[in-house]
Amino acid sequence: MNTRAYAAMKAKSELVPFSFDRREVGAHDVALDISYAGICHSDIHQVHEEWGPAIFPMVPGHEIAGVVTSIGSSVTKFKVGDRIGVGVFVDSCRDCDNCKSGLQQYCEQGMTGTYNGMERDGKTVAMGGYSNYFVINEDYAVHIPENLPLDGVAPLLCAGITLYSPIKHWNVGPGKKVAVMGLGGLGHMGVKFAVAMGAEVTVLSHSPNKEKDAIAMGAHHFVSTNDPAAFKVHAREFDIILNTVSAELDINQYLSLLRLNGTLIVIGLPGKPYAVEVGSLLNGRRSIGGSMIGGIPQMQEMLDFCGKNNIVSDVEVIKADYINQAYERTVKSDVKYRFVIDASTI
Ligand code: NAP
Ligand code: ZN
Ligand code: ZN
C-alpha cells in the first residue's frame, strides 16, 4: 500500500515529504490509519547519527496511535475500528527466554525496531510512524483505552512506557523520595507516574521556567540544577533518581544526591559514555541501573493504568511541515512537553 510519510534522506538533513510502499496485510497483521505520531528525542539522535551509522531514507516515529482499518484472516486480538498503539519495536524472535516472558525489548536476538533497522525478513527497511498508514503483526500492538484522547496517548507508546517500566521495577511508591532529571517528553511522564504511585517527587531541571508546570503535574519540589549550591543542599536526599536527560552531563554530581543504597537509573541516551567516579558509588553503597522501554504486556498494563487514572502526555500537536522546527525546539528543551504530529497533515 502506498504510504505518505516524512523522511530524512541523509544523516542530519531536514525531513521532507516522502512516499513508499508498505507490505500487504498478512494473516496475522493489522493495518491502521495513523492519527498521531509523537516526536521522541531518540528520533532526533538517529536522524543526526548520534548513536552511530543509520539507514536512510529514514522515516522516524515510534509513538504511534491510530485506528484499525483492516485485519488479516487469522487476527483475533483486534477488529476494524479499534484504537491501536505501536511503540519502539514491531517484532522480536518470540523464542528466547526474554521474549517468552514478555520482555521483548530485551530479546536476545535483538528486537526489530520500528524504524532505522531491517525487518525480520532481512531485506525490508522498517519505516516508522511519521506516516499515514502502518501494518503490524497483531502480537506487537496494544489496545488504547476508549476514554483517552489519541493525541495525548501517542507519547505513551515510548515516553510513557519507558518511565512506567523502571518505576514499577524499582518499586517507586509511598515513602520513596524520587527525583526526575529533565522535564522533557520522558521526564514529564516520569513525574506523572511517580506521583500516581504515591512517591514524593522532585524535578531536577536546567530550565527554571518549567517550575510551574512541574508542580501542576503533581511534582512536590522543583530544583534548578543551574545553581551549583543545589547539589549541596540536596546531597544524600533521594532513594531513586530517574535520569532522562538527552545531553552529556557530570553524572557524579547527581550520584551525590542519592542517599544510602540509592539507585540512579539511566534512561537518557546521549550517545557518549559517562565518566563515573567510583568514589561516588562506594560512598553510600550507591548503584547505577539502566532501563529500556518495556515489553508488550507491560505496555498494555501501562495504557490500562493511564485509562483508569486519566493520565496522558501534555502535547503540542503540530502539522507535518513543522517537524524540522519541532526538532530544533526539542533540542533546546523548548517543548510542552511532547510534539505530536497530526498524521492527517502528512
Ligand atoms: P526531551 O523531550 O528532549 O527531554 C530531555 C530533557 O533533558 C530536556 O527537556 C531537558 O530537561 C533535559 N536536558 C536537555 N539538554 C540538557 C542539558 N544540556 N543539560 C541538562 N539537561 C538537559 O527528550 P526525551 O524524548 O524525553 O528523551 C530523553 C532521552 O531519553 C533521549 O536521550 C532519548 O534518546 C532517551 N530515550 C531512552 C529510552 C529508553 O528506553 N531508555 C526511550 C526513549 C528515549 P530540563 O529542561 O527540565 O532540564
Ligand atoms: Zn522514543
Ligand atoms: Zn527473543
Secondary-structure blueprint of this entry?
Blueprint: E1 2-8, E2 15-21, E3 29-38, H1 41-47, E4 64-71, E5 83-86, E6 89-91, H2 97-100, E7 112-113, E8 133-137, E9 142-143, H3 150-153, H4 159-169, E10 177-181, H5 185-196, E11 200-205, H6 211-216, E12 221-224, H7 230-233, E13 238-243, H8 251-255, E14 258-266, H9 278-282, E15 287-290, H10 296-309, E16 315-318, H11 323-331, E17 338-342
Parallel strand pairs: 10-11, 10-13, 11-12, 13-14, 14-15, 16-17
Antiparallel strand pairs: 1-2, 3-4, 3-8, 3-17, 4-5, 5-9, 6-7
Helix pairs in contact: 4-5
The protein binds NADP nicotinamide-adenine-dinucleotide phosphate (NAP) and zinc ion (2 copies).
Return residue spans where pLDDT drops below 50 for at least 5 consecutive residues: none
Query: What structural class results from the helix and strand content?
Result: alpha/beta
Q: What share of the residues does DSSP label as strand, in percent?
A: 25-35%
CATH class term of the largest domain: Alpha Beta
* Beginning-to-end CA distance, first to last residue: 16 Å
The unique ligands bound to this protein are: NADP nicotinamide-adenine-dinucleotide phosphate, zinc ion
Instruction: Name the helix and strand elements from N-terminus to C-terminus, one letter apiece.
Output: EEEHEEEHEEEHHEHEHEHEHEHEHEHE
The residue-averaged pLDDT reads 98
Number of strands: 17
Looking at the overall shape, the CATH architecture of the largest domain is: Alpha-Beta Complex
Helix content: 10-25%
What's the total helix number? 11
Compute the CA-based radius of gyration: 20 Å
Broad shape: globular
Number of domains: 2
CATH fold-level label of the largest domain: Quinone Oxidoreductase, Chain A, domain 1
CATH superfamily of the largest domain: Medium-chain alcohol dehydrogenases, catalytic domain
Query: The biggest beta sheet, please?
Result: 7 strands, mixed
Pfam families: ADH_N, ADH_zinc_N
InterPro entries: ADH-like_C, ADH-like_N, ADH_Zn_CS, CAD-like, ER, GroES-like_sf, NAD(P)-bd_dom_sf
Domain Enoyl reductase (ER): 12-346
Keywords: Metal-binding, Oxidoreductase, Zinc
